[in-house]
Write a structure and sequence with these properties.
Elements: E1 3-7, E2 10-13, E3 18-25, E4 28-39, E5 46-51, E6 57-58, E7 67-72, E8 77-82, E9 91-101, E10 106-111, E11 115-120
Parallel strand pairs: 2-11
Antiparallel strand pairs: 1-3, 3-8, 4-5, 4-9, 5-6, 7-8, 9-10, 9-11
């Protein structure tokens, strides 16, 4: 069974930084795109950042210049460095990955369990 496990959420003051990590485990052949999404109370889940297997990144304007996504293909991990945090960044953050899993080369679109990020003003 392939799964994603996140870590690193917490409470931080506005202007502070947090780093989220996500590790994929199980019978994995390869991982295509990886990303982070977030969902605030009463709002839809939204894109925070994505990264391809070759390292190409994408960010919405709301986090561009403040957040940085990175990945370690050898370790099947993805991280999100969040700087200059704002109260509006408060949400549950979810890791996402497109995983080619064994033994039958199934393509799985996986989500982590979510980690809470709270930014106080």
């Amino acid at each position: 069974q392939v799964q994603l496990v996140e870590s690193g959420g917490g409470l931080v003051q506005a202007g502070g930084s947090l780093r989220l990590s996500c590790a994929a485990s199980g019978n994995i052949f390869s991982i295509n795109d990886m990303g982070w999404y977030r969902q605030a109370p009463g709002k839809q889940r939204e894109l925070v950042a994505t990264i391809t297997s070759s390292g190409r990144t994408n960010y919405p304007d709301s986090v561009k210049g403040r957040f940085t996504i990175s990945r370690d293909n050898a370790k099947n991990t993805v991280a999100l460095q969040m700087n200059s945090l704002k109260p509006e960044d408060t949400a549950v953050y979810y890791c996402n990955a497109d995983v080619l899993s064994g033994p039958f080369y199934r393509l799985l679109h996986l989500w982590g369990q979510g980690t809470q990020v709270t930014v106080s003003s």
